[in-house]
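Page 37, continued from 36.
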């Protein structure tokens, strides 16, 4: 009795281990599957089959092949050898193995056809219609959830097969509301159909069905990434990482998510750790080095960023360096005060940009020079922007004028301001910045050059304009001009307007005092000599 009970316990434990290993494989946790199944595979053909599949999906084709060969008469493992052939792009061999396997099915047998169909459905290059035919026959003999999942996968690879794929997946979830894999597949199918809300709903059901399934979180992360919602993408990839095997590909996906979500300091630390502790391979090493450098820019470590970006530009294929990469490097040089290098890489980035409308890039560069207080270069980049896109927004015209004023280059500023008011005559800022430029040219307010445009601007914005400093500045220019031209009525009017804003305004008080001062006495005529 004791021996019998022990045998039952051992059998139950072996079955639990097998089921757990299969679940790990289905959830893409291939390392966990290998750990769970390695010992059991020595005596259990199905455990050996899923162990081989775990090696195959991990990219270890040779180990997978040798694993399947341990049970040369077992249908599942024979199916595994067909998958190896398909993976090695030998479709003819894969199909022949699958057909020979399916031919072994007797009248009531279905397992051989099922495994033959699986070999095709879960790889590429095979005859998906043949797989569906075998699955259809299987479904007349049994109602196997795994067969319906496989049949759905085969339909998804056929143009127009989405509806039949959905029918098979829903058949599984209708029968078993805890089949997390089925809900994940339904979510994937809705996502491919661009029905994102239905995709999200089914991914949520997959999570509810089995909280240990990492696949819904990975799918949600991908969905949010493709829609440009990088913060929720990062939140989901974090949950995926917690549940996954944390393979190199998993960790690379997490690094990319950190970078896209602009978690720059975290991305820099994670990239450093990958470079220090992982065998990345050439392509991954290039990508991680680039992410490290760009993340360090935003994290404030400019010196290290420059070092790593120089390394990245050295090891990356020049054809893969995008215009945005050069622009980012230009921004870094600008931040370090290396203006010549900044200008060089900005220009290189612009010249390599194939976009028809480069407005946003020009504006980004202009704003970068503005932030660095290099107003002349900022003005020139705004000028480039306007020349490339004359229909751009009024704000770009305004900033070009402002930057030329701050530069200062009043000749270019006057030209820019006249172009602004010609393009946008009804825009109050056009009149204002033309007047401001003219005011600086007529610095003593003797010619009244700025008067017409200040008057036009004041009329356009009205007395309730909130920026009282700008209003007062216009009034002060007009006050000086009318004082110089001895227009006493306007002098009095603008003294009153200025004092209504600022009773202690120095210009108003000085001119008011000068107006009230008695006129100097006229000299008496000289008396003639006797």
């Amino acid at each position: 009795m004791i021996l019998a009970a022990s045998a039952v316990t051992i059998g139950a434990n072996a079955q639990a281990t097998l089921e757990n290993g299969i679940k790990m494989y289905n959830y893409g946790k291939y390392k966990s599957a290998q750990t769970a199944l390695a010992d059991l595979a020595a005596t259990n053909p199905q455990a050996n089959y899923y162990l081989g599949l775990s090696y195959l999906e991990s990219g270890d084709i040779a180990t997978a092949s040798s694993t399947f060969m341990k049970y040369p008469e077992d249908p599942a493992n024979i199916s595994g050898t067909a998958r190896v052939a398909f993976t090695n792009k030998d479709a003819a061999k894969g199909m022949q193995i699958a057909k020979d396997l399916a031919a072994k099915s007797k009248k009531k047998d279905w397992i051989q056809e099922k495994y033959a169909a699986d070999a095709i459905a879960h790889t590429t290059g095979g005859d998906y219609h043949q797989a569906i035919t075998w699955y259809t026959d299987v479904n007349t003999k049994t109602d196997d959830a795994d067969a319906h999942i496989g049949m759905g996968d085969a339909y998804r690879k056929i143009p127009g097969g989405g509806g039949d794929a959905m029918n098979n997946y829903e058949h599984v979830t209708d029968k078993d509301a805890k089949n997390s894999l089925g809900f994940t597949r339904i979510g994937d199918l809705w996502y491919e159909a661009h029905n994102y809300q239905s995709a999200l709903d089914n991914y949520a059901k997959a999570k509810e069905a089995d909280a240990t399934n990492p696949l819904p979180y990975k799918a949600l992360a991908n969905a949010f990434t493709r829609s440009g919602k990088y913060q929720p993408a990062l939140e989901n990839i974090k949950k995926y990482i917690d549940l996954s095997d944390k393979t190199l590909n998993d960790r690379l996906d997490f690094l990319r998510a950190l970078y896209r979500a602009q978690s720059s300091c975290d991305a820099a630390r994670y990239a450093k750790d990958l470079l220090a502790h992982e065998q990345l391979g050439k392509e991954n090493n290039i990508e991680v080095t680039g992410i490290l450098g760009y993340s360090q820019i935003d994290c404030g470590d400019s010196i290290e960023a420059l070092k790593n970006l120089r390394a990245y530009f050295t090891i990356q294929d020049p054809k893969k360096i995008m215009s945005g990469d050069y622009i980012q490097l230009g921004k870094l040089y600008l931040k370090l005060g290396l203006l010549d290098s900044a200008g060089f890489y900005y220009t290189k980035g612009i010249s390599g940009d194939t976009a028809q409308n480069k407005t946003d890039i020009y504006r980004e560069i202009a704003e970068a020079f503005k932030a660095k207080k290099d107003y002349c270069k900022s003005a020139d980049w705004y000028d480039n922007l306007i020349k490339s896109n004359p229909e751009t927004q009024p704000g770009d015209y305004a900033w070009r004028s402002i930057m030329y004023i701050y530069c200062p280059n009043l000749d270019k500023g006057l030209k820019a301001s006249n172009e602004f008011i010609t393009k946008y005559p009804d825009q109050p800022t056009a009149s204002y910045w033309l007047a401001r430029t003219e005011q600086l040219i007529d610095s003593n307010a003797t010619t009244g050059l700025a008067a017409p445009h200040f008057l036009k601007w004041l009329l356009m914005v009205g007395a309730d304009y909130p920026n009282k400093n700008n209003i007062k500045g216009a009034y002060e220019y007009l006050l000086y001009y009318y004082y110089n031209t001895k227009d006493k009525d306007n002098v009095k009017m603008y003294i009153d307007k200025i004092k209504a804003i600022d009773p202690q305004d120095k210009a108003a008080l000085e001119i008011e005092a000068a107006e009230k001062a008695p006129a100097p006495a006229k000299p008496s005529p000289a008396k003639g000599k006797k």
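Residues 390 and 423 are 9 Å apart (CA to CA). Flag for discussion at group meeting. The first helix runs from residue 2 to 26.
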